[in-house]
Amino acid sequence: MSTTIRLAAAATTTLIVMVVLDLVWLGVIAKSTYQQGIGHLMADRPVIPVAVLFYVIYAVGLTIFTIRPFAAVPGLGQTVIAAALFGFFAYATYDLTNLATLKDWPVRIVLIDIAWGIFVSAVSATAGKWMLDRLSAG
């Protein structure tokens, strides 16, 4: 199997895991937290094409920067660390920009969201790297 196909499978796995985790997080676990903190800014329904675009871009970014560099390295450790850092930088950029530029953006949301970004990025990319390793071994 070609490297391109294996990386596409890794990206797809990363995408699926991230979407599922985010649906559970945003739709169930943290829904009331976000409603209380930034509910006045939230749309009644997400704009699905824009959400799809975000998830595809983010999964490709995770694949390029946290999975592909370690494709020849067995194990998941380096991807976990790289993806956690990727999530930190991406989510901190978003949340700190909002804190700096929007009225009443809650610090609590900043901290929760950055922690979520670290977690969801690390877990999603690790699943993608796991898939890449499985396909490379067989």
Q: Helix segment count?
A: 5
Using DSSP, what is the number of strands?
0
Mean pLDDT: 97
N-C termini distance: 9 Å
Helix content: over 70%
- Low-pLDDT runs: none
- What sort of overall outline do the alpha carbons produce when their principal axes are compared? elongated
Largest sheet: none
Fraction in beta strands: under 5%
The computed structural class is mainly alpha
Tell me the Rg in angstroms.
16 Å
SSE topology string: HHHHH
Q: Give the number of domains.
A: 1
Structural features:
mainly alpha; 5 helices; 138 residues; elongated
Structural overview:
With 138 residues, the chain is mostly helical. It has one domain. It contains 5 helices and no strands. The chain starts with a helix and ends with a helix. The model has no long low-confidence stretch (mean pLDDT 97).
Draw up the topology in text.
Elements: H1 3-29, H2 31-38, H3 48-67, H4 77-101, H5 107-137
